[in-house]
C-alpha cells in the first residue's frame, strides 16, 4: 500500500495547489448563462481571476461581494444580497454560483439560512435565476474539492427529485476538474458515436473552448450545460462519473433521482478506455463503431512504438490526487518508475492506489527536493523554475498553465488522448537525450596504458 506522508511545513514554498473557491468557480463556469460570485474580499477574487484568465486566455465573468473591514466584523449578508441583486439587474443570468471564502467562513455565518432569506424576501426581483451556494473555505481542500462541492450543490439545488421517466438514450456525464476542454468534447463525441445523448455537468467545452461570441459582449458564460438540462438529470438511464472526487456528486444524484452511476477513476490508458467503451456499447445495444476500433488499433501501435522511450525512466509528478493517479498509472503502464509523487491534500482515497512507494502532501518545494535524478518533471507552470534548477525537462499539466498556448485543447483521455500523450512524452525524452561522442564509445577510454619511458623487456625463450 502507498504511504501517504502528511505535510510537515508551516509555510508553502512555491505553492502547488489552487483554492477550493477557484475550483467551485471553475465548475460554475461550465454552466450556460452563469456568473460565479466570490463571497469575500476583492483580493480573493482578483487572485483567482488572474489565474483563470492567464490559463484559459479568455474573458472570465467572475464577480465578488467586495467585503470590507466593517462587513467582515459585523457580517456580510447585506453585501451578498446587494451583489446578487446587482448581478440580476445588470446581467440577468440563469445561474449565480456563490462560492464562500476563508474570510467569511472563519466568522461562522449561516450562509444557507441567510441566502434562503434573501431568496424569500427578494423572490420577485430574482425570478428566473437559480442561486446555488457552495461552501468552499480556502483553508481546507483544494481545486478538486471545490469543483466537486459546486457540482454537488447544483444537483441538490436544481435537479428535480424523485423517479422520473427515463430516456433510453440519455446519459449523464460528471467529468472531473482535470479533464481539459478537448477531453470533455472528445468524451461527448465518443458517446454520440454510439447513438446516445450526453448531458455533461459541468461542460467547459461549451464555455471556455476559445470561441468568440457573434459581434457582441456577453457578461455571463456563453456556453456550457443548460440549467434545464441540470433539472432533467433524473431522466438519464445512466450516470458516468470521471475521477474519485466525483463519487460524491454521483451518489447524491442516485439518492435524489435513482439514476445508477459508474465511476471511472481515470479514462487514460487502454484498460480504462476499454471499460468505458464496453459500458457505452451495453447501454446503446450496439457494437463499437469502426472509428472507435480504429483509434484503439492506433493506440496499440503507439504503445509498441513508445514503450522503448519510457522503459526505466524516472518520473517526478506534482498534481491534485485524481490527476496524480491518472498520470502515475499512465507512466508506470508504459514501463516508467514514479521517483517522486507530491499532491495537495491527503484526504482522497485514490492516493492509496497511486503506483508509488509514497505520496508526499506538500508543495513544489517538496517536489524539487525529491526529484533529483529524475528524467521528467510533471506539474503545472509554477514548476518551471524547479525544472530549470534541476536541469530536468518539464511536462506541463493541470492548472494553471500560463506560459504555453493551447493547453486546454490537448487530449489526454480515451484511445486518441492516450496515444497523443504517449507521443508528447516520448518526444520530450527524445529532445533531451544526447548523442554519444566518439570518446564515450571508445572501449579503451578508461584503460591505463604502460609508461613508454621504460625500456622494453624480452624473454630468453
TrEMBL record:
Transmembrane segments: none annotated. Residues 444-454 have a biased composition (Basic and acidic residues). It comes from Sinorhizobium americanum. PANTHER family: LIGHT-INDEPENDENT PROTOCHLOROPHYLLIDE REDUCTASE SUBUNIT B. Keywords: Nitrogen fixation, Plasmid. This is Nitrogenase iron-molybdenum cofactor biosynthesis protein NifN. Belongs to the NifD/NifK/NifE/NifN family. One of its GO terms (biological process) is protein-containing complex assembly. One of its GO terms (molecular function) is nitrogenase activity. Residues 437-461 are annotated as: Disordered. Coiled coil: none annotated. This protein may play a role in the biosynthesis of the prosthetic group of nitrogenase (FeMo cofactor).
Amino acid at each position: 500500500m502507498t504511504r501517504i506522508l502528511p505535510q510537515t511545513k508551516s509555510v508553502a514554498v512555491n505553492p502547488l495547489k489552487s483554492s477550493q473557491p477557484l475550483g467551485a468557480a471553475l465548475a460554475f463556469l461550465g454552466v450556460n448563462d452563469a456568473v460565479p460570485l466570490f463571497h469575500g474580499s476583492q483580493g480573493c477574487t482578483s487572485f483567482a481571476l488572474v489565474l483563470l484568465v492567464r490559463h484559459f486566455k479568455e474573458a472570465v465573468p467572475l464577480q465578488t461581494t467586495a467585503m470590507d473591514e466593517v462587513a467582515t466584523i459585523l457580517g456580510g449578508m447585506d453585501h451578498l444580497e446587494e451583489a446578487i441583486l446587482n448581478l440580476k439587474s445588470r446581467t440577468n443570468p440563469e445561474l449565480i454560483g456563490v462560492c464562500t471564502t476563508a474570510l467569511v467562513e472563519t466568522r461562522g455565518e449561516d450562509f444557507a439560512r441567510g441566502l434562503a432569506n434573501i431568496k424569500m424576501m427578494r423572490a420577485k426581483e430574482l425570478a428566473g435565476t437559480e442561486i446555488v451556494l457552495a461552501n468552499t473555505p480556502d483553508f481546507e481542500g483544494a481545486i478538486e474539492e471545490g469543483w466537486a462541492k459546486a457540482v454537488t450543490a447544483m444537483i441538490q439545488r436544481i435537479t428535480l427529485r424523485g423517479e422520473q421517466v427515463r430516456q433510453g438514450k440519455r446519459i449523464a456525464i460528471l467529468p472531473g476538474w482535470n479533464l481539459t476542454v478537448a477531453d470533455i468534447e472528445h468524451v461527448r463525441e465518443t458517446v454520440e458515436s454510439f447513438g446516445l445523448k450526453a448531458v455533461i455537468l459541468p461542460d467547459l467545452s461549451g464555455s471556455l473552448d476559445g470561441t468568440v461570441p457573434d459581434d457582441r459582449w456577453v457578461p455571463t458564460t456563453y456556453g456550457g450545460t443548460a440549467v434545464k438540462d441540470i433539472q432533467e438529470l433524473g431522466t438519464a438511464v445512466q450516470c458516468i462519473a470521471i475521477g474519485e472526487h466525483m463519487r460524491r456528486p454521483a451518489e447524491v444524484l442516485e439518492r435524489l433521482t435513482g439514476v445508477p452511476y459508474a465511476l471511472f477513476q481515470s479514462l487514460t490508458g487502454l484498460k480504462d478506455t476499454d471499460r468505458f467503451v464496453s459500458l457505452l456499447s451495453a447501454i446503446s445495444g450496439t457494437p463499437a463503431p469502426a472509428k472507435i476500433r480504429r483509434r484503439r488499433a492506433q493506440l496499440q501501435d503507439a504503445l509498441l512504438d513508445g514503450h522503448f522511450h519510457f522503459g526505466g525512466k524516472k518520473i517526478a509528478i506534482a498534481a491534485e490526487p485524481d490527476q496524480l493517479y491518472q498520470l502515475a498509472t499512465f507512466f508506470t503502464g508504459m514501463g516508467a518508475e514514479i521517483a517522486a509523487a507530491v499532491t495537495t491534500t491527503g484526504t482522497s482515497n485514490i492516493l492509496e492506489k497511486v503506483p508509488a512507494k509514497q505520496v508526499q502532501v506538500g508543495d513544489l518545494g517538496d517536489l524539487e527536493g525529491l526529484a533529483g535524478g529524475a528524467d521528467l518533471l510533471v506539474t503545472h507552470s509554477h514548476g518551471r523554475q524547479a525544472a530549470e534548477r534541476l536541469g530536468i525537462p518539464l511536462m506541463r499539466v493541470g492548472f494553471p498553465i500560463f506560459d504555453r498556448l493551447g493547453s486546454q485543447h490537448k487530449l489526454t483521455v480515451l484511445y486518441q488522448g492516450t496515444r497523443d500523450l504517449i507521443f508528447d512524452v516520448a518526444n520530450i525524452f527524445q529532445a533531451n537525450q544526447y548523442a554519444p561522442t566518439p570518446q564515450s564509445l571508445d572501449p579503451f577510454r578508461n584503460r591505463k596504458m604502460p609508461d613508454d619511458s621504460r625500456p622494453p623487456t624480452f624473454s630468453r625463450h
